[in-house]
């Protein structure tokens, strides 16, 4: 096991990236600390239901079942063997120096580290549409989690809308489970999708699988739509109003809406830990800067969708690479990374093709009516945001101070990207010049009682 | 599932599709006895019987959760003793006493 003078490595996140990173460190004789918010290791896409659920992996993860099982098995084995110091249901809320402050089921706990691997994953990337603040409107990721981890649908008649691989996947999974889907509305046009195809052919098998799923959706699926609004009463959605590719107005009755435009990297801890960020045009968001292995700064490594949105397969590769870099920097023997680096190139070509095929709906966001809620947390509208730009300056942190977009409990996770788009549009500047919201600890709200310590 | 054009408007919004045979759990929501299944999150359990978990402080609408992965903070509600919990990342337990609004005298 770990010799007493060994450096202490902490991994945040036990999804595909964190698990593979931990595995490599364990092989090198290190016992890493693994801190994860989940009930069980696996992350979001390979999330496991709580105790007492019995659906087999094939039913939960479909074609990815063997990968999910391999990851879960590898992780559970390390936990059982005491090879990792595992802290489930624990959120790292702040970091400074070599300290992580976390909220665990037993209360506040501090962790020190010599080297830190952040594998914090991603969440849905959301664009505002009128009415999306109503109860019964969820993210696509939420729609999938409800099915996978709880065996439920979040409504009786479902409209899924947005763009990206999750749209088709969630629709297919819900249909298979017996849910009633009224429409699958893709804001990406067939022309966009064709433009992304050459890059996506870096993984022809996945493209084929996607097309087969799409075919199964049949007439439920519509490409190139514009989403006008969610019609709600006080209980929630009554219908989605949209226009089809030929600009004809449509109304689809529903009582639940799932929205999402691909993913947004979860980078709050990376920011607090001192990462530099670059605006990535193809992903339409700020992403941390690292070398190919995932080195972000001295003793700081990133892996998985919190670094580059390559999905679960890419996260496994990136997790191994980050751990390899960590081992190399500790002067320990390292495995040959050539194959993983080659894989990473291919996965990145695919991902950029996909980003092009299912783009962020830039023009639609810029055109939202003034009364549209942009910040779901505090109900701040596009009109209030635009007004603050005109008298406060076109910068995300200024707009946050003045209009409170990004000030709410989600800390900008669901409004930051759309907010920057609206700032850029109003001020006539590039989105990357609208700035990036500074991270603030704690990165999740917490009960004060859990944090205050007796003197 | 109904195939009607207009969905029926029941009390809750959850439709159970699988694993319905889990043991029952009893809890109270706003003083009313409710039932859920062991392994349900508090969010699932509440939304079986109610359309929302709380009232938005900043708008006229109610809220019923949004991301289900602990990121959006939309689904915080109250327990009867005034404590707060995030419904999507907490499992329901027998005897829980939950509220969709702050308890009396809670500021």
What does this structure look like?
The complex is a heterodimer of chains A (455) and B (107). Chain A is α/β, with parallel strands linked by helices and 455 residues long. Chain A has three domains: 187 residues, 3-Layer(bba) Sandwich (FAD/NAD(P)-binding domain); 136 residues, FAD/NAD(P)-binding domain; 67 residues, BFD-like [2Fe-2S]-binding domain (Arc Repressor Mutant, subunit A). Helix content of chain A is 36%, strand content 23%. The longest helix of chain A has 20 residues. The radius of gyration of chain A is 22 Å and the shape is globular. Chain B has a single domain, classed as Ubiquitin-like (UB roll) (Roll). In chain B, the strands form two sheets. Chain B has a five-stranded mixed sheet, with helices on one face. The longest helix of chain B has 8 residues. The radius of gyration of chain B is 14 Å and the shape is globular. The chains are: A alpha/beta (455), B mainly beta (107). Chains A and B meet through β9, α4 and β10 of A and β1 and β5 of B.
Write the layout of secondary structure elements.
The complex is a heterodimer of chains A (455) and B (107).
Chain A: E1 9-12, H1 16-27, E2 33-35, H2 57-61, H3 65-80, E3 85-87, E4 91-96, E5 99-104, E6 107-112, E7 115-118, E8 122-124, E9 137-139, H4 140-150, E10 152-153, E11 158-163, H5 165-177, E12 181-186, H6 190-200, H7 204-217, E13 221-222, E14 226-233, E15 236-243, E16 249-253, E17 256-261, E18 263-265, H8 268-272, E19 277-280, E20 285-288, E21 295-297, E22 300-302, H9 311-329, H10 338-357, H11 362-366, E23 373-375, E24 380-381, H12 382-392, H13 396-403, H14 416-427, H15 448-451
Helix pairs in contact in A: 1-3, 1-9, 4-5, 5-7, 6-10, 9-10, 12-13, 12-14
Chain B: E1 15-16, E2 24-29, E3 32-37, H1 42-49, E4 54-55, E5 62-63, E6 76-79, E7 84-86, E8 97-99
Parallel strand pairs in B: 2-8
Antiparallel strand pairs in B: 2-3, 4-5, 6-7, 6-8
């Amino acid at each position: 096991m770990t010799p007493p003078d060994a450096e202490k490595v902490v991994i945040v996140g036990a999804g595909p990236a964190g698990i593979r990173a931990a595995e490599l460190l364990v092989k090198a004789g290190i016992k890493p600390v693994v801190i994860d918010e989940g009930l069980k290791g696996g992350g979001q896409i390979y999330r496991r239901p709580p105790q007492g659920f019995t659906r087999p992996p094939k039913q939960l993860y479909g074609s990815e079942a063997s990968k999910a099982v391999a990851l879960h098995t590898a992780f559970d084995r390390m936990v059982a063997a005491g090879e990792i110091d595992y802290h489930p249901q624990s959120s790292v809320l702040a970091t400074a120096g070599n300290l992580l402050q976390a909220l665990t089921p037993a209360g506040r706990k501090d962790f020190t580290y010599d080297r830190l691997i952040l594998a914090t994953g991603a969440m849905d990337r959301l664009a505002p549409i009128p009415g999306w603040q109503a109860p019964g409107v969820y993210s696509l990721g939420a729609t999938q989690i409800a099915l996978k981890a709880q065996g439920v649908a979040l409504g009786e008649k479902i409209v899924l809308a947005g763009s990206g691989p999750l749209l088709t996947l969630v629709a297919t999974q819900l249909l298979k489970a017996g849910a009633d889907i009224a429409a699958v509305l893709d804001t990406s046009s067939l022309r966009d999708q064709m433009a992304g195809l050459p890059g996506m052919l870096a993984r022809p098998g996945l493209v084929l699988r996607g097309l087969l799923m799409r075919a199964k959706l049949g007439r439920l699926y519509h490409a190139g739509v514009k989403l006008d609004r969610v019609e709600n009463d006080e209980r929630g959605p009554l219908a989605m109003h949209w226009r089809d590719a030929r600009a004809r107005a449509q109304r689809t009755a529903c009582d639940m809406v799932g929205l999402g435009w691909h993913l947004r990297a979860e980078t709050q801890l990376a920011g607090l830990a001192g990462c530099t960020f670059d605006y990535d045009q193809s992903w339409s968001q700020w992403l941390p800067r690292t070398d190919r292995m995932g080195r972000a700064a001295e003793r700081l490594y990133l892996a998985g969708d919190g670094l580059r949105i390559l999905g679960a397969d890419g996260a496994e590769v990136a997790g191994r690479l980050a751990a390899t870099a960590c081992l190399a920097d500790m002067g320990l023997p390292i495995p040959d990374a050539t194959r993983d680096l080659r894989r990473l190139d291919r996965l990145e070509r695919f991902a950029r093709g996909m980003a092009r095929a299912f783009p962020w709906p830039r023009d639609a966001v810029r055109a939202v009516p003034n009364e549209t809620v942009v910040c779901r947390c505090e109900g701040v509208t596009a009109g209030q945001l635009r007004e603050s730009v005109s008298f406060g300056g076109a910068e995300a942190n200024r707009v946050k101070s003045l209009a409170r977009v990004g000030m709410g409990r989600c800390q900008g996770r669901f409004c930051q990207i759309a907010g920057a788009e609206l700032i850029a549009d109003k001020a006539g500047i590039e989105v990357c010049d609208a700035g990036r919201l500074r991270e603030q600890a704690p990165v999740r709200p917490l009960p004060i009682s859990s944090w205050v310590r007796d003197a | 599932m109904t195939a009607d054009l207009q969905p029926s408007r029941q009390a809750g919004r959850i439709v159970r599709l699988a694993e319905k045979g889990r043991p029952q759990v009893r809890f109270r929501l706003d003083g009313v006895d409710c039932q859920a299944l062991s392994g349900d999150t508090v969010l699932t359990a509440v939304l079986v019987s109610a359309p929302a978990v709380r009232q938005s402080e900043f708008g006229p609408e109610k809220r019923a959760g949004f991301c289900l992965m602990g990121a959006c903070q939309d689904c915080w509600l109250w327990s009867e003793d005034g404590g707060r919990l995030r419904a999507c990342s907490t499992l329901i337990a027998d005897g829980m006493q939950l509220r969709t609004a702050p308890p009396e005298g809670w500021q």
